[in-house]
Design brief:
By secondary structure, this protein is mainly α. It contains 20 helices and 12 strands. The longest helix is centred in the first third of the chain and has 16 residues.
Length: about 475
Protein backbone atom coordinates (compact mmCIF):
# COMPACT_ATOMS: atom_id res chain seq x y z
CA UNK A 1 0.00 0.00 0.00
CA UNK A 2 1.21 3.50 -0.78
CA UNK A 3 2.24 5.59 2.24
CA UNK A 4 -0.89 7.27 3.60
CA UNK A 5 -1.34 10.92 2.65
CA UNK A 6 -4.47 12.76 3.78
CA UNK A 7 -5.53 16.39 3.89
CA UNK A 8 -7.79 18.75 5.74
CA UNK A 9 -9.16 21.37 3.36
CA UNK A 10 -11.21 24.12 5.05
CA UNK A 11 -12.47 27.28 3.38
CA UNK A 12 -11.46 30.52 5.18
CA UNK A 13 -14.99 31.91 4.91
CA UNK A 14 -15.85 31.50 8.58
CA UNK A 15 -14.56 30.35 11.93
CA UNK A 16 -13.48 26.72 12.27
CA UNK A 17 -16.34 24.80 13.90
CA UNK A 18 -16.76 21.47 15.67
CA UNK A 19 -17.52 19.52 12.51
CA UNK A 20 -14.40 20.87 10.83
CA UNK A 21 -12.18 20.00 13.78
CA UNK A 22 -13.60 16.48 13.90
CA UNK A 23 -12.78 16.04 10.20
CA UNK A 24 -9.25 17.32 10.80
CA UNK A 25 -8.89 15.05 13.84
CA UNK A 26 -10.00 11.88 12.02
CA UNK A 27 -7.62 12.66 9.15
CA UNK A 28 -4.76 13.36 11.55
CA UNK A 29 -5.38 10.21 13.60
CA UNK A 30 -5.61 8.07 10.46
CA UNK A 31 -2.35 9.49 9.12
CA UNK A 32 -0.46 9.09 12.39
CA UNK A 33 -1.81 5.57 12.98
CA UNK A 34 -0.44 4.53 9.59
CA UNK A 35 2.75 6.62 9.97
CA UNK A 36 1.62 8.74 7.04
CA UNK A 37 1.35 12.45 6.27
CA UNK A 38 -1.34 14.98 7.17
CA UNK A 39 -1.56 18.08 4.99
CA UNK A 40 -3.43 21.36 5.27
CA UNK A 41 -5.01 22.97 2.21
CA UNK A 42 -6.78 26.33 2.36
CA UNK A 43 -9.59 26.41 -0.20
CA UNK A 44 -9.62 30.16 -0.77
CA UNK A 45 -10.86 30.41 -4.36
CA UNK A 46 -13.80 32.59 -3.29
CA UNK A 47 -12.17 36.04 -3.02
CA UNK A 48 -15.39 37.70 -1.84
CA UNK A 49 -15.98 35.49 1.21
CA UNK A 50 -12.43 34.38 2.06
CA UNK A 51 -10.81 36.29 4.93
CA UNK A 52 -7.22 36.34 6.18
CA UNK A 53 -8.40 36.36 9.79
CA UNK A 54 -10.32 33.12 9.29
CA UNK A 55 -7.29 31.51 7.70
CA UNK A 56 -5.19 32.52 10.70
CA UNK A 57 -7.85 31.30 13.10
CA UNK A 58 -7.99 27.91 11.39
CA UNK A 59 -4.22 27.48 11.62
CA UNK A 60 -4.10 28.72 15.21
CA UNK A 61 -6.87 26.35 16.26
CA UNK A 62 -5.16 23.31 14.71
CA UNK A 63 -1.94 24.23 16.52
CA UNK A 64 -3.87 24.69 19.77
CA UNK A 65 -5.22 21.17 19.40
CA UNK A 66 -1.78 19.79 18.60
CA UNK A 67 -2.87 18.72 15.10
CA UNK A 68 0.28 19.87 13.33
CA UNK A 69 0.32 19.45 9.57
CA UNK A 70 3.19 18.24 7.40
CA UNK A 71 4.87 20.42 4.82
CA UNK A 72 3.82 23.89 3.71
CA UNK A 73 0.16 24.93 3.49
CA UNK A 74 -1.35 24.60 0.01
CA UNK A 75 -3.42 27.60 -1.06
CA UNK A 76 -5.89 27.06 -3.90
CA UNK A 77 -5.70 30.74 -4.83
CA UNK A 78 -2.09 30.15 -5.86
CA UNK A 79 -2.89 27.22 -8.14
CA UNK A 80 -5.21 28.72 -10.76
CA UNK A 81 -2.71 27.97 -13.54
CA UNK A 82 -2.97 24.23 -12.85
CA UNK A 83 -6.78 24.32 -12.79
CA UNK A 84 -6.97 26.15 -16.09
CA UNK A 85 -4.48 23.70 -17.61
CA UNK A 86 -6.73 20.80 -16.58
CA UNK A 87 -9.80 22.51 -18.06
CA UNK A 88 -7.92 23.20 -21.28
CA UNK A 89 -6.85 19.56 -21.47
CA UNK A 90 -10.44 18.35 -21.06
CA UNK A 91 -11.65 20.69 -23.79
CA UNK A 92 -8.87 19.63 -26.18
CA UNK A 93 -9.55 15.92 -25.61
CA UNK A 94 -13.31 16.34 -26.02
CA UNK A 95 -14.02 15.32 -22.42
CA UNK A 96 -15.65 18.68 -21.72
CA UNK A 97 -17.51 21.26 -23.78
CA UNK A 98 -18.27 24.97 -23.78
CA UNK A 99 -21.79 25.90 -22.77
CA UNK A 100 -23.00 29.30 -24.02
CA UNK A 101 -26.40 29.07 -22.30
CA UNK A 102 -26.96 32.15 -20.18
CA UNK A 103 -27.99 31.83 -16.52
CA UNK A 104 -31.28 33.55 -17.40
CA UNK A 105 -32.06 30.94 -20.08
CA UNK A 106 -31.18 28.05 -17.78
CA UNK A 107 -33.36 29.48 -15.02
CA UNK A 108 -36.25 29.95 -17.46
CA UNK A 109 -35.90 26.34 -18.66
CA UNK A 110 -35.79 25.15 -15.08
CA UNK A 111 -39.02 26.93 -14.17
CA UNK A 112 -40.79 25.54 -17.24
CA UNK A 113 -39.68 21.98 -16.51
CA UNK A 114 -42.10 19.49 -14.91
CA UNK A 115 -42.47 19.58 -11.10
CA UNK A 116 -41.36 23.20 -11.01
CA UNK A 117 -37.83 22.32 -12.01
CA UNK A 118 -37.09 20.04 -9.07
CA UNK A 119 -35.92 17.31 -11.43
CA UNK A 120 -34.49 19.66 -14.03
CA UNK A 121 -31.40 18.43 -15.86
CA UNK A 122 -29.28 20.36 -18.31
CA UNK A 123 -30.59 19.21 -21.72
CA UNK A 124 -27.20 19.22 -23.44
CA UNK A 125 -28.01 22.23 -25.61
CA UNK A 126 -24.35 23.06 -26.35
CA UNK A 127 -22.89 19.58 -26.04
CA UNK A 128 -22.56 18.95 -29.77
CA UNK A 129 -21.94 22.44 -31.14
CA UNK A 130 -19.65 22.37 -34.16
CA UNK A 131 -16.19 23.85 -33.88
CA UNK A 132 -17.18 26.55 -36.35
CA UNK A 133 -20.21 27.54 -34.25
CA UNK A 134 -18.08 27.68 -31.13
CA UNK A 135 -15.51 29.90 -32.87
CA UNK A 136 -18.25 32.20 -34.12
CA UNK A 137 -19.65 32.68 -30.62
CA UNK A 138 -16.21 33.10 -29.13
CA UNK A 139 -15.37 35.77 -31.72
CA UNK A 140 -18.57 37.58 -30.77
CA UNK A 141 -17.39 37.59 -27.16
CA UNK A 142 -20.21 35.38 -25.83
CA UNK A 143 -19.49 34.23 -22.28
CA UNK A 144 -19.42 30.50 -21.68
CA UNK A 145 -19.09 27.96 -18.92
CA UNK A 146 -17.33 24.63 -19.30
CA UNK A 147 -19.25 21.44 -18.59
CA UNK A 148 -17.98 17.88 -18.24
CA UNK A 149 -19.26 15.32 -20.73
CA UNK A 150 -20.79 12.42 -18.84
CA UNK A 151 -19.94 9.05 -20.42
CA UNK A 152 -22.22 6.05 -20.26
CA UNK A 153 -21.74 3.53 -17.49
CA UNK A 154 -21.73 3.30 -13.70
CA UNK A 155 -19.58 4.91 -11.04
CA UNK A 156 -18.77 2.43 -8.30
CA UNK A 157 -16.53 2.95 -5.27
CA UNK A 158 -16.01 1.29 -1.92
CA UNK A 159 -16.49 3.90 0.77
CA UNK A 160 -14.42 3.05 3.87
CA UNK A 161 -17.44 3.73 6.09
CA UNK A 162 -20.59 3.30 3.98
CA UNK A 163 -19.41 0.34 1.91
CA UNK A 164 -19.99 -0.12 -1.82
CA UNK A 165 -21.76 2.75 -3.54
CA UNK A 166 -22.96 2.64 -7.15
CA UNK A 167 -24.34 5.55 -9.16
CA UNK A 168 -25.49 5.34 -12.75
CA UNK A 169 -23.79 7.93 -14.92
CA UNK A 170 -27.18 8.72 -16.44
CA UNK A 171 -28.16 10.17 -13.04
CA UNK A 172 -25.31 12.71 -13.16
CA UNK A 173 -25.93 16.01 -14.91
CA UNK A 174 -23.29 17.53 -17.19
CA UNK A 175 -22.03 19.70 -14.37
CA UNK A 176 -20.00 22.88 -14.70
CA UNK A 177 -16.24 22.67 -14.07
CA UNK A 178 -15.50 26.30 -15.03
CA UNK A 179 -17.85 29.26 -14.60
CA UNK A 180 -18.49 31.88 -17.24
CA UNK A 181 -16.07 34.24 -15.44
CA UNK A 182 -13.32 31.66 -15.88
CA UNK A 183 -13.17 30.51 -12.25
CA UNK A 184 -12.97 26.73 -11.74
CA UNK A 185 -15.56 24.98 -9.60
CA UNK A 186 -15.09 22.97 -6.43
CA UNK A 187 -15.36 19.51 -7.94
CA UNK A 188 -12.58 20.19 -10.42
CA UNK A 189 -10.12 21.98 -8.14
CA UNK A 190 -10.22 19.39 -5.36
CA UNK A 191 -9.44 16.62 -7.84
CA UNK A 192 -6.51 18.52 -9.32
CA UNK A 193 -5.24 19.42 -5.84
CA UNK A 194 -5.59 15.93 -4.40
CA UNK A 195 -3.67 14.52 -7.37
CA UNK A 196 -1.00 17.22 -7.06
CA UNK A 197 -0.64 16.49 -3.32
CA UNK A 198 -0.57 12.72 -3.80
CA UNK A 199 -3.57 12.21 -1.52
CA UNK A 200 -4.31 8.51 -0.98
CA UNK A 201 -7.41 8.81 1.23
CA UNK A 202 -10.10 11.51 1.20
CA UNK A 203 -11.78 11.61 4.64
CA UNK A 204 -14.57 14.19 4.86
CA UNK A 205 -18.18 14.75 5.90
CA UNK A 206 -20.96 12.73 4.32
CA UNK A 207 -22.45 15.92 2.92
CA UNK A 208 -19.87 15.37 0.15
CA UNK A 209 -21.22 11.95 -0.81
CA UNK A 210 -23.07 13.41 -3.78
CA UNK A 211 -19.87 15.10 -4.99
CA UNK A 212 -17.77 11.95 -4.95
CA UNK A 213 -19.18 10.30 -8.14
CA UNK A 214 -18.65 13.57 -10.01
CA UNK A 215 -15.09 13.81 -8.78
CA UNK A 216 -14.36 10.20 -9.71
CA UNK A 217 -15.46 11.04 -13.26
CA UNK A 218 -12.96 13.89 -13.32
CA UNK A 219 -10.19 11.64 -11.96
CA UNK A 220 -10.90 9.21 -14.75
CA UNK A 221 -11.01 11.67 -17.66
CA UNK A 222 -7.80 13.34 -16.44
CA UNK A 223 -6.10 9.96 -16.09
CA UNK A 224 -5.41 10.40 -12.36
CA UNK A 225 -5.22 7.66 -9.73
CA UNK A 226 -8.41 7.60 -7.66
CA UNK A 227 -7.96 7.84 -3.87
CA UNK A 228 -9.98 5.89 -1.37
CA UNK A 229 -12.94 7.72 0.15
CA UNK A 230 -14.38 7.77 3.67
CA UNK A 231 -17.41 9.91 4.49
CA UNK A 232 -17.97 10.80 8.13
CA UNK A 233 -21.46 10.87 9.66
CA UNK A 234 -23.13 14.22 10.20
CA UNK A 235 -23.13 15.88 13.64
CA UNK A 236 -26.61 16.75 14.85
CA UNK A 237 -27.84 18.86 17.73
CA UNK A 238 -29.96 17.41 20.55
CA UNK A 239 -33.04 18.24 18.45
CA UNK A 240 -31.70 15.92 15.69
CA UNK A 241 -31.15 18.87 13.36
CA UNK A 242 -27.80 19.69 11.83
CA UNK A 243 -25.50 21.25 14.41
CA UNK A 244 -25.52 25.04 14.16
CA UNK A 245 -25.13 28.19 16.24
CA UNK A 246 -28.57 27.72 17.75
CA UNK A 247 -27.22 24.68 19.63
CA UNK A 248 -24.55 26.72 21.41
CA UNK A 249 -20.93 27.57 20.80
CA UNK A 250 -20.03 25.68 17.64
CA UNK A 251 -17.07 27.94 16.77
CA UNK A 252 -13.81 26.65 18.25
CA UNK A 253 -12.79 30.08 19.50
CA UNK A 254 -15.86 30.15 21.74
CA UNK A 255 -14.83 26.85 23.35
CA UNK A 256 -11.36 28.27 23.94
CA UNK A 257 -12.82 31.37 25.59
CA UNK A 258 -14.97 29.13 27.77
CA UNK A 259 -11.81 27.48 29.01
CA UNK A 260 -12.09 23.96 27.64
CA UNK A 261 -8.81 22.08 27.46
CA UNK A 262 -7.90 21.17 23.86
CA UNK A 263 -7.24 17.53 24.75
CA UNK A 264 -10.65 17.29 26.42
CA UNK A 265 -12.41 18.75 23.39
CA UNK A 266 -10.59 16.35 21.05
CA UNK A 267 -11.40 13.44 23.36
CA UNK A 268 -15.07 14.37 23.12
CA UNK A 269 -15.05 14.99 19.37
CA UNK A 270 -13.58 11.59 18.56
CA UNK A 271 -16.70 10.00 20.05
CA UNK A 272 -18.89 11.89 17.59
CA UNK A 273 -18.90 9.02 15.12
CA UNK A 274 -16.14 6.72 16.38
CA UNK A 275 -16.50 3.75 18.72
CA UNK A 276 -13.35 2.30 20.33
CA UNK A 277 -15.12 -1.03 21.07
CA UNK A 278 -14.07 -0.75 24.71
CA UNK A 279 -15.48 0.78 27.89
CA UNK A 280 -12.66 3.34 27.98
CA UNK A 281 -13.85 6.92 27.52
CA UNK A 282 -10.88 9.08 28.52
CA UNK A 283 -8.03 9.02 26.01
CA UNK A 284 -4.80 10.86 25.44
CA UNK A 285 -3.94 11.85 21.88
CA UNK A 286 -1.24 9.16 21.76
CA UNK A 287 -3.75 6.52 22.84
CA UNK A 288 -6.16 7.63 20.13
CA UNK A 289 -3.42 7.36 17.50
CA UNK A 290 -2.78 3.74 18.50
CA UNK A 291 -6.45 2.74 18.63
CA UNK A 292 -8.02 4.68 15.75
CA UNK A 293 -9.43 2.70 12.81
CA UNK A 294 -11.82 3.94 10.11
CA UNK A 295 -13.70 0.64 10.38
CA UNK A 296 -14.87 1.77 13.83
CA UNK A 297 -16.50 4.93 12.47
CA UNK A 298 -20.27 4.54 12.47
CA UNK A 299 -22.70 5.43 9.70
CA UNK A 300 -25.27 6.80 12.11
CA UNK A 301 -25.33 10.56 12.66
CA UNK A 302 -23.61 11.69 15.87
CA UNK A 303 -25.51 13.73 18.47
CA UNK A 304 -23.79 16.66 20.16
CA UNK A 305 -24.21 16.29 23.94
CA UNK A 306 -22.95 19.18 26.07
CA UNK A 307 -23.33 17.18 29.31
CA UNK A 308 -21.03 14.49 27.94
CA UNK A 309 -18.54 17.14 26.82
CA UNK A 310 -18.51 18.66 30.31
CA UNK A 311 -18.05 15.27 31.95
CA UNK A 312 -15.07 14.45 29.73
CA UNK A 313 -13.69 17.94 30.30
CA UNK A 314 -13.93 17.44 34.06
CA UNK A 315 -12.04 14.15 33.82
CA UNK A 316 -9.19 15.82 31.96
CA UNK A 317 -9.13 18.68 34.47
CA UNK A 318 -8.71 16.21 37.35
CA UNK A 319 -5.83 14.43 35.61
CA UNK A 320 -3.91 17.60 34.75
CA UNK A 321 -1.38 18.98 37.28
CA UNK A 322 -2.29 22.28 38.89
CA UNK A 323 0.86 23.91 37.46
CA UNK A 324 -0.18 23.02 33.91
CA UNK A 325 -3.74 24.23 34.51
CA UNK A 326 -2.51 27.54 35.90
CA UNK A 327 -0.30 27.93 32.84
CA UNK A 328 -3.35 27.36 30.62
CA UNK A 329 -5.30 29.91 32.65
CA UNK A 330 -2.52 32.42 32.10
CA UNK A 331 -2.77 31.81 28.33
CA UNK A 332 -6.51 32.43 28.53
CA UNK A 333 -6.31 35.46 30.82
CA UNK A 334 -2.82 36.75 31.68
CA UNK A 335 -4.30 39.26 34.15
CA UNK A 336 -6.12 36.73 36.33
CA UNK A 337 -5.04 37.31 39.92
CA UNK A 338 -1.48 38.05 38.83
CA UNK A 339 -0.90 40.02 42.05
CA UNK A 340 -1.59 36.92 44.19
CA UNK A 341 1.00 34.48 45.55
CA UNK A 342 1.49 31.67 43.05
CA UNK A 343 1.56 28.93 45.70
CA UNK A 344 -1.83 30.13 46.93
CA UNK A 345 -3.17 30.11 43.36
CA UNK A 346 -1.88 26.58 42.80
CA UNK A 347 -3.68 25.39 45.95
CA UNK A 348 -6.91 26.95 44.70
CA UNK A 349 -6.54 25.37 41.25
CA UNK A 350 -5.83 21.98 42.86
CA UNK A 351 -9.00 22.28 44.95
CA UNK A 352 -11.26 23.60 42.19
CA UNK A 353 -10.14 21.27 39.39
CA UNK A 354 -11.84 18.36 41.14
CA UNK A 355 -15.28 19.90 40.90
CA UNK A 356 -15.27 22.26 37.92
CA UNK A 357 -15.26 21.55 34.18
CA UNK A 358 -13.36 24.40 32.51
CA UNK A 359 -10.59 26.89 33.14
CA UNK A 360 -13.09 29.74 32.98
CA UNK A 361 -15.11 28.14 35.76
CA UNK A 362 -12.01 28.05 37.95
CA UNK A 363 -11.56 31.78 37.41
CA UNK A 364 -15.20 32.79 37.88
CA UNK A 365 -16.01 30.38 40.72
CA UNK A 366 -12.99 31.15 42.89
CA UNK A 367 -13.60 34.79 43.77
CA UNK A 368 -14.43 33.97 47.36
CA UNK A 369 -10.86 32.79 47.90
CA UNK A 370 -9.75 36.39 47.34
CA UNK A 371 -12.64 38.79 48.00
CA UNK A 372 -15.23 39.10 50.75
CA UNK A 373 -18.73 38.50 49.35
CA UNK A 374 -20.65 41.68 48.61
CA UNK A 375 -23.98 39.85 48.32
CA UNK A 376 -25.54 36.52 49.22
CA UNK A 377 -27.43 34.06 47.08
CA UNK A 378 -31.04 35.06 47.82
CA UNK A 379 -32.63 31.61 47.54
CA UNK A 380 -30.01 30.06 49.80
CA UNK A 381 -30.18 32.94 52.29
CA UNK A 382 -33.93 32.51 52.73
CA UNK A 383 -33.62 28.75 53.02
CA UNK A 384 -30.50 28.46 55.19
CA UNK A 385 -30.56 31.77 57.11
CA UNK A 386 -34.23 32.48 57.39
CA UNK A 387 -34.45 33.72 60.98
CA UNK A 388 -32.57 35.51 63.76
CA UNK A 389 -32.07 32.11 65.37
CA UNK A 390 -29.28 31.42 62.89
CA UNK A 391 -27.53 34.61 64.00
CA UNK A 392 -27.39 33.37 67.61
CA UNK A 393 -26.06 30.03 66.40
CA UNK A 394 -23.33 31.75 64.33
CA UNK A 395 -22.38 34.03 67.22
CA UNK A 396 -21.87 31.08 69.55
CA UNK A 397 -19.87 29.21 66.91
CA UNK A 398 -17.68 32.27 66.34
CA UNK A 399 -16.84 32.27 70.03
CA UNK A 400 -15.52 28.72 69.62
CA UNK A 401 -13.52 29.69 66.54
CA UNK A 402 -11.92 32.68 68.26
CA UNK A 403 -10.26 30.53 70.92
CA UNK A 404 -8.93 27.93 68.46
CA UNK A 405 -5.12 28.04 68.44
CA UNK A 406 -4.61 25.65 65.51
CA UNK A 407 -6.49 26.33 62.29
CA UNK A 408 -6.60 23.13 60.23
CA UNK A 409 -9.13 21.13 58.23
CA UNK A 410 -9.38 18.31 60.74
CA UNK A 411 -9.76 20.49 63.81
CA UNK A 412 -12.25 22.81 62.13
CA UNK A 413 -14.47 19.92 61.13
CA UNK A 414 -14.17 18.30 64.56
CA UNK A 415 -15.05 21.55 66.33
CA UNK A 416 -18.08 22.24 64.16
CA UNK A 417 -19.50 18.74 64.52
CA UNK A 418 -18.91 18.72 68.29
CA UNK A 419 -20.61 22.12 68.54
CA UNK A 420 -23.68 20.84 66.66
CA UNK A 421 -23.83 17.64 68.70
CA UNK A 422 -23.87 19.64 71.94
CA UNK A 423 -26.86 21.61 70.67
CA UNK A 424 -28.69 18.59 69.32
CA UNK A 425 -28.79 19.84 65.71
CA UNK A 426 -27.58 18.32 62.47
CA UNK A 427 -24.26 19.65 61.21
CA UNK A 428 -25.98 20.87 58.02
CA UNK A 429 -27.82 23.47 60.10
CA UNK A 430 -24.49 25.19 60.63
CA UNK A 431 -22.45 24.16 57.58
CA UNK A 432 -24.80 25.80 55.08
CA UNK A 433 -25.07 29.24 56.72
CA UNK A 434 -21.33 29.31 57.42
CA UNK A 435 -20.59 28.53 53.78
CA UNK A 436 -23.02 31.27 52.70
CA UNK A 437 -21.35 33.78 55.03
CA UNK A 438 -17.86 32.93 53.79
CA UNK A 439 -18.51 32.65 50.04
CA UNK A 440 -21.92 34.20 49.32
CA UNK A 441 -22.89 31.11 47.28
CA UNK A 442 -24.47 27.75 48.16
CA UNK A 443 -21.87 25.46 46.59
CA UNK A 444 -18.13 25.11 46.57
CA UNK A 445 -15.26 22.97 47.79
CA UNK A 446 -15.15 21.40 51.25
CA UNK A 447 -16.15 24.03 53.79
CA UNK A 448 -13.34 23.09 56.15
CA UNK A 449 -10.73 23.18 53.41
CA UNK A 450 -12.04 26.58 52.36
CA UNK A 451 -11.86 27.83 55.97
CA UNK A 452 -8.27 26.63 56.30
CA UNK A 453 -7.35 28.35 53.04
CA UNK A 454 -9.01 31.64 54.00
CA UNK A 455 -7.48 31.72 57.45
CA UNK A 456 -8.90 32.59 60.86
CA UNK A 457 -8.95 36.37 60.52
CA UNK A 458 -10.79 36.35 57.19
CA UNK A 459 -13.34 33.76 58.32
CA UNK A 460 -14.22 35.66 61.48
CA UNK A 461 -14.48 38.94 59.57
CA UNK A 462 -16.85 37.46 56.96
CA UNK A 463 -18.99 35.79 59.62
CA UNK A 464 -19.27 39.11 61.46
CA UNK A 465 -20.31 40.88 58.22
CA UNK A 466 -22.95 38.23 57.53
CA UNK A 467 -24.41 38.74 61.01
CA UNK A 468 -24.95 42.38 60.11
CA UNK A 469 -26.62 41.67 56.75
CA UNK A 470 -28.59 38.46 57.39
CA UNK A 471 -31.30 37.30 57.54
CA UNK A 472 -32.66 38.95 54.40
CA UNK A 473 -36.14 40.23 55.03
CA UNK A 474 -38.94 40.07 52.45
CA UNK A 475 -38.78 43.84 52.06
CA UNK A 476 -35.07 43.82 51.25
Amino acid sequence: MKPVRVRFAPSPTGELHLGGVRTALFNWLFAKHHKGKFFLRIEDTDPVRSRKEYEEQICDSLKWFGLQWDGPIVFQSQRLVDYKAAIRKLLETGKAFRCFCSPDKLEKDRKQAPKGGRDYRYPGTCKNLSLEEQKRRLNQGEPFAVRLKIPRGVISFNDQIYGNIRVKNSEIDSFIISRSNGSPTYNLVVVVDDHFMGITHVIRGDDHLTNTPKQILIYKVLGFDIPKFAHLPMILGPDKRRLSKRHGATGIQAFRWQGYLPQALLNYLVFLGWNPDTEQEIFTLDELVRKFHLQQVQKKAAIYDEKKLNWISGQHMVQMPAEALLSRIRELNPEWRKEENEDYLLKIVEIQKKRLKTLSEIMTHSNFFFDDPTSYDLKTARKRWGSEGVNFLIQDFMARLEIMEEWSVGLLESELRKFCEERGISSSKLIHPVRLALSGVPHGPSLFLMMEMLGKVTCLRRLKTALEKLPITVES
